[in-house]
Structure formats: structure tokens, C-alpha cells
Design a protein that fits this description.
Length: 151
């Protein structure tokens, strides 16, 4: 059973561990990844600044989803990650559905993911209903910006 709980500042080390497990391959592939290698102190501040939910599978922390409101009803998914051994089980899809329900006033959700991460592109477009809005650079990595619009 998948559950969600608010991340507290005291969860910073746990969230760092989840991010590092989920984003290690990106760090190796691109030589950079903003979500990888954060310090406990950086994550404590991030938890304060950007609400995060820890994703629990059978009470075990397996991922994180973080959204912030950019303006009324328009949210950015700053992070949706699931540690590799739990990917492909519908956990990410369930997390996105949770965000849509939790932020009930939503008009749009946006996010970015690397252009060459075809599994991510397929996940966001086919499983979650996002459209590709644009292509841009994030550091030295080419990314797609996705948008999900409420009908």
C-alpha cells in the first residue's frame, strides 16, 4: 500500500538518501544533477522552502514528491523520485495522482526532465497526461518542460 507523509526538517538525512539513490545514475550520466549530493543542511532548508511528501510503500520510504505553487493554482513539480528498486511498480503514477488530489485548486502542473531520458518522457506523457511545452537548457543538460493542464 502506498502512503504519503509530510517531510519534516528532521527527515533531511532520509530525504538526502532517497534523492542520492534516485538520482545517482543521472549524476554519473550528466556529471551534474541538482538533486544529487545535497548536504543535510541544504535539505533542511529545502524542506522548509519547498513542501515535500515522503512516499511510503508498505511503510518503507521509497521516494519523494515535492511541489510548489508558482502563482495561484499553478504548481511546479520540483521533484518526483522513486529509488530504483521500486521503480516500475506504479508508485510514481500514484504520487502524481496524490499531488493532483492534494493541490485541489490546481490549474497547471509543470516540471522538467532530461530530453534523452525516454523512460521519464514516456512516464510523464503517457502515464500522467503531461504535454511537452518547450525544450530548454538546465546547466549543460537539455531538458523538456512539461505541462499538465486541468480541463
Amino acid at each position: 500500500m502506498i502512503e504519503f507523509r509530510n517531510a519534516e526538517v528532521s527527515d533531511a538525512e532520509l530525504v538526502v538518501d532517497i534523492y542520492n539513490a534516485a538520482f545517482f545514475d543521472d549524476y554519473v550520466k550528466y556529471g551534474e544533477c541538482p538533486a544529487y549530493g545535497r548536504t543535510k543542511e541544504e535539505m533542511e532548508q529545502s524542506i522548509i522552502d519547498y513542501p515535500k511528501f515522503i512516499i511510503l510503500n508498505e511503510s518503507k520510504p521509497v521516494g519523494v514528491i515535492s511541489c510548489r505553487e508558482l502563482e495561484a493554482g499553478n504548481y511546479e513539480v520540483g521533484c518526483l523520485c522513486v529509488i530504483p528498486e521500486f521503480q516500475g511498480r506504479g508508485i510514481g503514477t500514484t504520487a502524481m495522482r496524490f499531488a493532483i488530489t492534494h493541490y485541489s485548486d490546481w490549474k497547471t502542473f509543470t516540471l522538467v526532465t532530461p530530453v534523452d531520458k525516454s523512460q521519464n518522457v514516456k512516464f510523464y506523457t503517457e502515464r500522467c497526461g503531461f504535454d511537452i511545452q518547450s525544450e530548454e537548457m538546465d546547466g549543460s543538460v537539455k531538458v523538456y518542460r512539461f505541462i499538465l493542464r486541468r480541463i
